[in-house]
Automatic annotation (TrEMBL):
PANTHER family documented for this protein: PROTEIN COFACTOR ASSEMBLY OF COMPLEX C SUBUNIT B CCB3, CHLOROPLASTIC-RELATED (PTHR33219:SF14), YLMG HOMOLOG PROTEIN 2, CHLOROPLASTIC (PTHR33219)
Key words, A-Z: Membrane, Transmembrane, Transmembrane helix
GO cellular component terms attached to this protein's record: membrane
Transmembrane segments: 12-30, 56-77
Protein name (database record): YggT family protein
Pfam name, any one: CCB3_YggT
Protein family per UniProt: Belongs to the YggT family.
Length: 88
């Protein structure tokens, strides 16, 4: 029962972080959105993780694909953790 609850909390947190990455990517489309309180707060949460991928993945034709790769890695991590909790 305890592992069931832990697995659902971990899944929920990963999904919430994926949503934060998506919102952060959408904020980049609006001028000065990162200068608002919400934009600064969200950028402070998401940027350290995204910066890991920005070091290795340069923008292609001006498009930054690092948020997509970051989400892909989180989905893989979520699936691996689900399989680990199932085996336990």
């Amino acid at each position: 029962m305890f592992l069931y609850v832990v697995s659902h909390v971990v899944n929920w947190l990963i999904e919430l972080y994926i949503l934060a990455i998506c919102v952060s990517a959408l904020l980049s489309w609006f001028p000065n959105a990162y200068h608002s309180r919400f934009g600064q707060w969200l950028n402070g949460i998401v940027a350290p993780y995204i910066n890991i991928f920005e070091r290795f993945i340069p923008p292609i034709f001006g498009l930054d694909f690092s948020p997509m790769i970051a989400i892909f890695v989180l989905v893989i991590l979520e699936n691996l953790l689900n399989r680990l909790f199932i085996m336990l």
